[in-house]
Design goal:
219 residues; alpha/beta; six-stranded mixed beta sheet; 9 helices; 6 strands
Length: 219
């Protein structure tokens, strides 16, 4: 992308029942596990000081239930109304069509031709009723193109969306993007040409331009 990109803080939703089972969710949904709720509480507390320092941020959430459930927990901890999160369908996970609800092992066993097709061309292969990785990335690029570049943005979304956004910001090669992995409720700060996974509170504040006491610092 050649257009200036806004500062973007992306949070992956918490663990779900199908995450535990290793099943592709896509546009289908299962609720957060108790562990997923704990993860959302932890990331909310970890990010709270930095979110409080952001100037006039815009909040976004995928329309899928697991992301909305995570965003609701974040909103409670951040003392803000859940309604402040604007839904955007472009933040929904990639559609896996006929594969949704299956594990990759089941796809390989039950749909071997489709599994081979995806392995041969992971960016352009479309499973029945699904979405190619390229189409999914283009959808996220369209969302980015509509954002106000003068304000920071916070988005609660999915692993596939997070990987696509990381690639769009970093300009990483396709094979590098395919190797991206991130834990549940991982948080990444994305700026033009840069990405940083945020873990410790002080490191997080510094990444956003503040010191450990909330003062603005040069970076």
């Amino acid at each position: 992308m050649t257009r200036q990109l806004p500062t973007l803080l992306v949070v992956r939703h918490g663990e779900t029942q199908w995450n535990v089972a290793g099943r592709l969710q896509g546009r289908l949904d299962t609720p957060l596990t108790v562990n997923g709720m704990r993860q959302a509480l932890a990331v909310a507390a970890r990010l709270a000081p930095a979110v409080a320092e952001l100037e006039d941020p815009v909040f976004w959430v995928s329309p899928l239930g697991r992301a909305r459930q995570t965003a609701s927990i974040l909103a409670d901890i951040w003392s803000m109304p859940f309604a402040a999160f604007a839904e955007d369908p472009r933040l929904a996970e990639r559609s896996y069509g006929a594969w949704e609800g299956m594990t990759l092992d089941e796809v390989e066993q039950d749909l071997p031709d489709q599994h081979r097709g995806n392995a041969a061309d992971p960016w352009c292969y479309r499973m029945p009723a699904g979405e190619t990785r390229t189409e999914h990335t283009d959808r996220l690029a369209g969302w980015l193109a509509a954002l106000d570049t003068d304000r920071p943005h916070i988005a609660v979304t999915h692993s596939g969306c997070l990987r696509a956004l990381r690639g769009l910001y970093s300009g990483a090669a396709r094979d590098v993007i395919l190797a991206y992995r991130e834990p549940q409720t991982a948080a990444f700060l994305l700026t033009a040409g840069k990405e940083a996974q945020l873990d410790a509170p002080v490191a997080l504040l510094r990444a956003l331009g503040c010191d450990g006491e909330g003062r603005t610092v040069a970076i």
